[in-house]
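Good morning C.,

I know you're traveling, so I'll keep this short. The sequence:
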Amino acid sequence: DIALFDFVTARAFGQHDELLRWAHAHLAPNGKIVLWLGEDDAALLSQEPLWSWNQLLHIPGSQRRCLLVGSPL
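The tokens, ready to paste straight into the viewer:
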């Protein structure tokens, strides 16, 4: 059996494709992924077609860091 999670979080990661593929398979039906990353990576990942992404949340006190929250389609 595969464990299903309500949330998957990550910070300072580089294997975006692998993480999204793993999270898609391991999130509960209403699960979310929460990523702490730079604006450039967030812009790239927010175009992933198998995910529904919320609006970026900028980290207070940070110049270019943000949270990207999404759920699998």
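Safe travels,
E.
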